[in-house]
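Dissemination and training. As part of the outreach component of the grant, students in the summer workshop were shown how a complex can be specified as a set of sequence lines and then modelled as a single object. The example used during the hands-on session is reproduced here so that future cohorts can follow it. Participants entered these lines:
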Amino acid sequence: MDGSIKTTEIMKSGAEALLRALKDQGVDVIFGYPGGAVLPIYDAIFQQNAIRHILVRHEQAAVHAAEGYARSTGKVGVVLVTSGPGATNAVTGLVDALMDSIPIVCLTGQVPTHLIGNDAFQEADTTGITRQATKHNYLVKRSEDLSRVVHEAFHVAKTGRPGPVLIDLPKDILINPAPYAEPNGLPHRSYRPRTAPDARKVAEAVALMKRAERPIVYSGGGVINAGPEAAKLLMEFVRLTGFPCTSTLMGLGAYPASDPQFLGMLGMHGTYEANMVMHGCDVMLNMGARFDDRVTGRLNAFSPGSKKIHVDIDPSSINKSVVVDVAIVGDATETLRALIAAWKADTQTQDREALAKWWQQIDVWRSKNSLRFTQNRDPGSIIKPQYAIERLYKATRGIAKDTYVTTEVGQHQMWAAQHFKFDKPNRWMTSGGLGTMGYGLPAAMGVQVANPDALVIDIAGEASILMNIQEMGTLAQYRLPVKIFILNNQYMGMVRQWQELLHGNRYSESYSAALPDFVKLAESFHAVGLRAEKVEDLDKVIAEMLAVDRPVIADICVDQKENVFPMIPSGAAHNEMLLGPEHKANAGGYGGGSVTDEGLVLV
Amino acid sequence: MVEQNNGNRSATISVLVENESGVLARVIGLFSGRGYNIDSLTVAPVERDRSKSRITIVTSGTEMVIEQIKAQLGRLVPVYRVQDLSKDGPHLARELALIKVVGIGDARQEALRLADAFRARVIDASTESFIFELTGATDKLDAFLDLMRPLGLAEVSRTGVAAIARGKSTIE
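and obtained this result:
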């Protein structure tokens, strides 16, 4: 991004040049927290109106909020934190965004250039610490580099496989005058991600798929990241081919969950039919997913008989853990468009009879109804967590608002993925790769800032929510009517589930002792607190929560013993699923049944 | 391409990078973070204006791991080009060693004789020591060092491997 600069003018300070660059990049909101090293930026923010600043209560939350903003809008989320602890607190959020490919630009303050390396107050080697936590990072040492670096950072964050980019800004750079140059639109010197698929590979893929007797489309977060057009094309492709479609946790919403060709989520807590299809298919099209270990189960037993086609924008995702037969490096939108065109142009006819037989088999698997649960409706009965999600989902169907759901991490996250159905992309934000407890509330905040008229729900657990509970203050300050729906089972549920299944019921440190009264907690943060203790309370509490135009914490007291099923135990294959508690004996305790010692070391 | 047991092979990879601060740390961090081996690593600017550097890495792993290393290197933002010299065709690889041998009498004479046979240059001498400069492929340097060990080998400084493809093709 060097060479022909359109206009250059000298700005009064680096901070002003920075804000101008942000404005030219289309930034309308920043999530941040002030501190000594970034005071010049805050001073510049004070003197303008183009960019809104949302003051969070902890820097980690600033990054998650920016992630929620980015994932719900497709735009780059922007974070501003100070040096030292500001930057280190942001690291978890950065890694979260890196793992889930979320475009973020994180601006960190730094001590003045002449003090760098001197162990100055609030100094940390931020670029050193975040090198492996970001897609790329910069330390701006010269004022003349400032605006170029900011433009480049946005370009790197949102192109190719998106990710977080950090810019470390020494205080003297922010104070001294700096030249400003607009984005010049020239290609980057070294960074040129490939987006157009290789036409020969596309033809090869289509030839394989035309001959397929037992096909599956396995779609992932890449389809979401490519934008809503990719989701439309995915639908078109799946309809055109008549193939079944499953989705990763990150890809939910790219293909409408209500469509009969959708098999639900796959993987460790995916549906029986999705996993059996993956295991038994003869041709697999992986569209923007990365063969994550939560999806594949035991690698040497993963989809043993299939020809695999992998479309990914990141060449390093291909053949990383699963060797594929056709590798296509490309953007999901462009590749789907090419696949549709090539499918139509290809003269081979499909074996529709085999496909019909495949669907018959799928219907047999589907009839297992692997997400089933039993809720006793008698008054006074304890609420099943799955039932709570199902009722919440039903209730949101009845309102006119667009609904966005975020989650924390654990059992509630899996139940939300299983029982809340998404028909549109960008409506579901969860921490998939890193599995960050405390993600959901700040992410919901970011979603609500980006979509002020939408209904935004954080489906949470009572343990996760406490990890960033301080953000209730942010909700109050900006009147963000986020609904926090806590499935409160008084346990770190997923930890408890693994302890039950793998560690002989020894519930070491997984009980949520000394919980706060969430109703009072909500009230003390100027929000509405509600509680449902019995099945008959549930619908009423949900209705009230949705009716209130304020932040709400709904404390839903659920069955403590409920586990997430189906489940592929660690180290097991897709066709070795546990469908429910009746299968538990199979897996129970060390070395017993289907959980091998090898599986035990896996996370 | 050196075939090793258990399906591992050695690979010499050239990486052309933007000559900016932190780029070497990115490459090294990638190797340590993902558990890849570094058998040798060299780096120096190669453009007249010092805008680009060339990193030569000798690593080993299964074919899948080496392909993964190349792909991971390729996606670093300041990387222009990644070339697998061991795979893309014949190439030359050389390193330089400065070798201090301390001794007197017969051992000293023998060291000097062997150095001559290996075309190592004497670049410093005292009554009790020599410093040899030797350039060559890694195995030649290893062989020479093995011979020097009983003859008073005291200290070694090696540059690591620099490598380039034969013929007219270039990394760019």
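Chain A has a mean pLDDT of 95. Students were then asked to discuss how this feature might be tested experimentally.
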